[in-house]
Structure formats: structure tokens, C-alpha cells
Write a structure and sequence with these properties.
Blueprint (H helix, E strand, L loop, with lengths): L12 E2 L5 H10 L5 H12 L13 H10 E2 L4 E7 L5 E6 L19 H4 L9 E8 L4 E4 L3 E3 L14 E4 L2 H12 L9 E4 L9 H12 L11 E5 L3 H7 L7 E5 L5 H7 L8 H15 L3 E7 L7 H12 L3 E7 L13 H13 L4 E4 L19
Parallel strand pairs: 1-2, 6-9, 9-10, 10-11, 11-12, 12-13, 13-14
Antiparallel strand pairs: 3-4, 4-5, 5-6, 7-8
Helix pairs in contact: 1-2, 5-6, 7-9, 10-11
């Protein structure tokens, strides 16, 4: 486990920062039986209870000792919104201690320090997380960082830069909270497509995935967990050796390097060819097909020549394409493409034998759609 994040007021350790083994060891250290760790995990993840007073199969003294050593929730929900399509969004405030510094857990090929430097410290470090319901699934879209260092020109998450990495426990807490919302029942899928670049916070994200996937944790299958990255070749190769076979999505957004550099500043650090080589290694080692995420910006990257080149890239490897219509962000100069342009783009891909889907934009009326998450209270 990563070093536990503690409650700054009394130095209590967060339950969400622990796995079963580390919690069992910590319980033993305060004189409790080994089985206590498993009992607590069952309350937290099966029954959705983090209040020790409600853990009725534990005696009064064990509950007191646990409450003195551990805490449950680290964040505070300061806004809960429900969209007209039943998408739900939480704005969570983490306080001064975000869980990690900007350098902790970074992958070895992260871009230069100047891009990763934290913005001016804010006392209200906040992230947004979204629950997307459909007929057959409840998908949690979680954040991995406070803000984002990538700075995509069309995305609200990078406004203000990066303000810190979230610890593993704070990532897991987002999924737990979403699963406790009314009418949700149980989260079935998790996508790391919220605020931040997941592979720039590699250690925390992979540790969180272990808890999300574990039978003692949230018990969500590996194939129902998706990590979306803007593209860090060395980190993608590192993920190839991760023991949990998650799904990988590459946020490509442009088929030509020159255009990609204009809309994604981090594209300066790796070419499309380098990214696809790393993704090909992913396919060879894991056998899992890559998803290419492509936000369509009206008049920028949505023309036939873009579709033809994207098809060529997708056919060079095992990849399918998710097309996403740009979701408007106030103050940004891009336009949402028309339905006819989107349909023509998809038809071009399909004519060139590329499997593609148009992803529905969910929660737009509460700014919960792709590219709209941000420090809202700012």
C-alpha cells in the first residue's frame, strides 16, 4: 500500500487507504484480532457503512479503538447535482491535504517539471465525480488528480492547472460515494475519465484499481474498469505489466501530430507513432483491444481527411473508435459539430472497416459531460 493519508486534525488513518492485508496488520498493532480487518472491510464495502458505531458484530472496546485509529470519509460533498437524464455529479472538497504532492506517483516519462508544477495552493481543493446510469449499468467516472496538468485546449479540467494528485483512498472514496447515492444500488463500471491524467498518478491509480477490483473491496471486474490516458508511452508500457487486465483508452483527438500539438500541449512530448507503438505493445502483452477516444471539434478535426487518417491509424493496430461530440465550455473557442458532420465522420470510418461508436453526451445541463469537469466553485 501507499503511505496512508491521515486526517490532519487527529492523525487518524483513512480506511479507504488500506487494503485487507494492511488493515489487518494495523488492527493487530492496536491489539485487535486478525479477523477484525476482514470484518471492517465487509462493513465498508458490502454494507456501505463507515461509522464504527454501526458495526454491530464488533464489541464496544474494539469499536472505540478503531475510531481512535481510523477514519472513514476524507472528503465533504459540497454540491450534488442531478441532470435531466439522471446523470449525477458530486463536487467533493478535500481540504488542505490532497493526499499526495505533485511528484508522488508520477510515471517516469512525465512531461517537463514546468508543466507539472502545481498552481498556487488553494484551501478548497476540489474534484468532481460523476455517476452515469443506463438500463444495464451504473458507471462511475472518477477523477485521479485535482485539476489537470495536460491543459487540453477544449477541456475545462485543466483550467487553473494541476493542484495535486489524489491518493488511492480518495479515488476509491469517489466510487464508494457514488454507489451510496439514492437509486444507484451498486456501481458496475468505473472509468478513469474525470479530472486529471491517470497515468501521471500511476501508483495511486493502480492501487485504487486493486481495491475497486478486489473481492474484499468493491468487487468490480477488470474488464469493467477503463483507464483513459492522453498518452504517456513509458507509462502505457508500465501498465502492460499491471496484474489486473483493465481496459485502456487513448485520448487521441487528432490524427496528425501538428494538429494534435495545437489542441493538446502534452503532444509535444510524444508523437502519434510513439503512442501507437506503446498501444501495440499493450495489445501483444494483454490481448486487449485499445479504444481510441476522439472528441469532434466543429471545423477543427471533424473533416473527411481527418476520418480517413484516423481510420488508417486504427487499422494499423487492434483498435475501435469512440466518437465524442465536443461539449461546450464557457470561454473556449470551439464549436459542437453538427449531426450531419458527425454522421459523415462515422460513415467514413465504417467504410474503411473501422468499428466506431458515437458516445452519447450525458449530463450536459449540469456540466457533467466529457471535458466539462472542473473546480466549479472557482
Amino acid at each position: 500500500m501507499n503511505e496512508s493519508t491521515t486526517d490532519p486534525s487527529n492523525q487518524r488513518e483513512s480506511l479507504f487507504e488500506h487494503d485487507l492485508a494492511s488493515l489487518t496488520t494495523a488492527c493487530e498493532a492496536i491489539g485487535l484480532p486478525r479477523r477484525t480487518g476482514g470484518q471492517v472491510m465487509k462493513w465498508v464495502y458490502e454494507k456501505g457503512i463507515v461509522d464504527f458505531a454501526q458495526m454491530s458484530d464488533l464489541g464496544k472496546e474494539p469499536r472505540t479503538r478503531l475510531a481512535e485509529r481510523f477514519t472513514g470519509l476524507q472528503g465533504s460533498v459540497i454540491r450534488h447535482q442531478v441532470a435531466s437524464d439522471d446523470t449525477q455529479k458530486l463536487l467533493i472538497e478535500w481540504g488542505e491535504n490532497s493526499g499526495q504532492s505533485d511528484g508522488d506517483g508520477q510515471s517516469s516519462d512525465a512531461p517537463s517539471d514546468s508543466l507539472l508544477r502545481l498552481t498556487q495552493s488553494r484551501s478548497d481543493k476540489q474534484t468532481e465525480t460523476v455517476l452515469i446510469p443506463t438500463d444495464d449499468r451504473q458507471t462511475a467516472c472518477v477523477s485521479s488528480q485535482i485539476g489537470c496538468p495536460v491543459g487540453c485546449k477544449f477541456c475545462a479540467s485543466g483550467i487553473g492547472g494541476l493542484d495535486g494528485n489524489l491518493s488511492a483512498g480518495r479515488i476509491v472514496e469517489q466510487v464508494w460515494r457514488l454507489g451510496r447515492l439514492p437509486s444507484v444500488g451498486r456501481v458496475s463500471n468505473v472509468v478513469f475519465m474525470g479530472m486529471g491524467e491517470p497515468l501521471a498518478n500511476f501508483d495511486s491509480v493502480t492501487q485504487a484499481i486493486r481495491t475497486i477490483n478486489a473481492p474484499w473491496g468493491l468487487g468490480i471486474g477488470a474488464r469493467k474498469i477503463t483507464v483513459s490516458t492522453v498518452g504517456m508511452p513509458a507509462a502505457i508500457r508500465k501498465l502492460c505489466n499491471f496484474e489486473i487486465p483493465v481496459t485502456l483508452a487513448l485520448s487521441l483527438h487528432a490524427p496528425f501530430d501538428e494538429l494534435r500539438r495545437k489542441i493538446i500541449p502534452w503532444a509535444e512530448y510524444s508523437t502519434i507513432s510513439e503512442l501507437l507503438d506503446a498501444c501495440q505493445e499493450w495489445f501483444v502483452k494483454t490481448g486487449r483491444e485499445i479504444t481510441l477516444e476522439y472528441i469532434l471539434l466543429g471545423g477543427v478535426n471533424d473533416q473527411v481527411e481527418h476520418a480517413e487518417e484516423l481510420a488508417r491509424l486504427a487499422r494499423s493496430m487492434r483498435a475501435n473508435v469512440n466518437l465524442i461530440r465536443y461539449n461546450e465550455v464557457k470561454g473556449m473557442p470551439f464549436m459542437r459539430p453538427g449531426s450531419e458532420d458527425v454522421r459523415r465522420f462515422q460513415e467514413t470510418l465504417r467504410e474503411m472497416q473501422v468499428n466506431s461508436h458515437i458516445r452519447a453526451s450525458r449530463g450536459r445541463d449540469i456540466a457533467a459531460a466529457c471535458g466539462q469537469l472542473r473546480h466549479e466553485s472557482q
